[in-house]
Amino acid sequence: MSVRQIPEAVQRPRPTIRAGAARPGAVRAGDPPRTSVTARRHRAFYMFTAPWIIGFLLLTVGPMAYALWLSFTTFDGISPHWSFVGFDNYRELLSDQVTWDSLSRTGVFALTSVPLSIIAGLGLAVLVNRPMKARGLWRTLLYLPAVVPPVGAGLVFKTLFNRDSGAANGVLNLGGIDAVAWLDDPYARYVILMAVLWGAGNVMIISLAGLQDVPRELHEAARIDGASAWRTFRSITVPLLSPVLLFQAVTGMIASVQTIMPLLIAADATPKGVTAIPQTNYMYMMHVFAEYFALGRYGYASALLWVLFVLILIATGLIFRLTSGVVFYNVEPEAKK
């Protein structure tokens, strides 16, 4: 078919290139090679990420590798006389009843404290997300306990629940109730739970950010359809907050199994006093602390930490597996595309 047979509307004029002008896609004489541009971008990427990479290698990978090596030895941290014992430390902890008891208490504590923290934080977030006077002040006051250092929080609760001079027993005395030994069995576990809930402001802030990301149009449509506030919260708000709740469940679980609060509120908060912690609060990390600093068994304590690391990985995988059908994302995760 010749050019004359092509309809005039279909014909496209050929672009005219002026003399000396560069063609599209051509590399000009002064332009740097594309390989050098890519290399500069790679160098810039590694320069910006180098502080984190170096810190990760020196402060995370290095200590973990050292602890793994220690777990196969009888090193006590001081004496130069130590030996390589292979998997003896791991075999010992599998047969150690104290280890299993502390692990079971830690599991019960995590299954109790994490849901309570999420519920308390979400309830506070819903409360301060509503229109009210001095809303910013209320948010600040509720979040303040979360920024208190753990040592300070432990001292506060140790003072509040002191048997002789604590404010808790002072309130009970006003009602004619005898003083309670809050920091001893069996009440010590409730003090720990109260200490965890006292710092629920951290969960509140994350839940508040998730609540503000929920489209208002969905709430308005549900209100027009006659849905109650509870039905709207259960059917719209919670599903859209499910990624936030999953994040809080995973991070809360990891934090709960590594809690040191029982040591901070103990009567004798010293390495030797860790063995005097109430039995209900003698959790896994307390056992690790006792083996490290009270008994000087660095190898055995390192084996305990590596077992905890593996258990955390397994628990995290189970949480993701069990919640895969109830977590809804506004944007589909990259792994599922």
Q: Gyration radius, to the nearest Å?
A: 30 Å
- The percent range for helix content is 55-70%
The total count of strands amounts to: 0
Shape: globular
| Unreliable runs | none
Counting helices, strands and paired strands, the structural category is mainly alpha
Strand proportion, as a percent range, falls in under 5%
Q: How confident overall, as mean pLDDT?
A: 83
Topology:
Elements lengths: L33 H37 L17 H7 L2 H32 L6 H9 L6 H11 L6 H8 L13 H11 L2 H11 L4 H9 L4 H28 L4 H4 L19 H11 L3 H25 L15
Helix pairs in contact: 1-13, 2-13, 3-8, 3-10, 3-12, 8-10, 9-10, 10-13, 12-13
Summary, kept brief:
The chain has helices at 34-70, 88-94, 97-128, 135-143, 150-160, 167-174, 188-198, 201-211, 216-224, 229-256, 261-264, 284-294, 298-322. The chain is an all-alpha fold.
Features:
single chain, 337 residues, mainly alpha, globular
Structural account:
This protein has helices spanning 34-70, 88-94, 97-128, 135-143, 150-160, 167-174, 188-198, 201-211, 216-224, 229-256, 261-264, 284-294, 298-322. The protein is built from 13 helices and no strands. The relative contact order is 0.11. The longest helix is centred in the N-terminal third of the chain and has 37 residues, at 34-70. The two termini are 46 Å apart. Helix 2 (88-94) packs across helix 13, helix 3 packs across helix 8 (201-211) and helix 3 crosses helix 12. It has 337 residues and is mainly alpha-helical.
